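Write out this protein's structure.
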Amino acid sequence: MENSGNSQNRYFAVRSVELEACICHEYPRQHNKCSYHEILKIDPDKRTKAMKAVIQSQELAFEAGKLLLSTRAYTQELDTKRLSKLKGRFEKSDEAVIMEKVVFERAMERNETPLERAKSLSWLHLLAAVPILMSHVATKDVIGAAQVAAIALALMQQKSRRWETLLEPHGLSLWDYELVVRMHQSHAILEMPAILPDAVVTNYAPIMKANAERIYSVQPTNNWNLMFCITMGMYQGNRSQVLREAIKVADDDGDDSISICLRWTLCHAILLGAEGPSFELAEVLSIITNAHAAMEVAEKWTNPKTIVPPETYWPCLGVAARYSAAVKKDPSFGHTRMPAYASSADLDSEKRHVMCAWCDEMCYPLKKCSGCQSVGYCSKKCQIKSWKAGHKQKCKLNSKPDNQCSA
């Protein structure tokens, strides 16, 4: 189908015979794949549970867009000509601009609450929130995502009984809507530590906790929410046992995305003493190996690093890099128990084993200097720069000028 207009603010897309358009057309993702489009290329019978969840999430955005347009057409008696120009898109009309910019995009006043912002809104705004929220998450606008979700949830709680009956004919329930909004909001908050100062992130912790508690009360077996609960420290006593059980469920269901996240979270917890003052090195290395292998498989349809908190992923890989090298020298070392790390700061220090010796970028596995084996690089380019900048003199093979480090 032909797209309408040249608006830069397009949140809805039409169905196409060849490929379903989505937000990535308006917001190109640098260095990232569009998971939705990659999954569409895969045989439906071979799609995992995680892949199906991505499809369903995108479908909800499409349904919200279509429902919004059909409702507007009905309530405002839009003529056929105007409706044909929309072709499934949230057009750049005065009303749409107000809905997007004033309702969701305008920053909150200092003492303004989501409920106060939501009081003057209609259920049309509720529908508009879904694709707008997803666009914020996709473009890493975590503050915008959290704000849109907060307003939408406040709006939903005001007149939910009325809206439930409006959603039902379209195969949607208010809980479906609430779950998507809360999960996207929690995901945005989970990414904040890597983007925003700690002081800002702290303000959003109560929101994430409230989301986790609400979802747990309705869906106690929701594995993504389970991971959020553990992140919030809601399972301090038995979190490793809960994680192991969740991993088994995820594996049985073929839910590869959450399985990856849960394995990294379990490994991180064990290293910090969740199962006692020491850990079995062989088991930890096995968990990391399985998690990393699963990530490589997931790279066929998404960028798995975007779903794993970097503060969990990189320290664990640092441990793997450090101890795998030791086991390679002495295989019997793999059967030992190692003391758990005293703090997150101590565990974070292991990231040095996956940090490029030249540019400080995180990379696993690093390309080791073939001469001294004591330094590693993320690329051949960095390796050559380091060699020319002085590593040539430090390397144990510096007596052979022509024998440079090899990637």
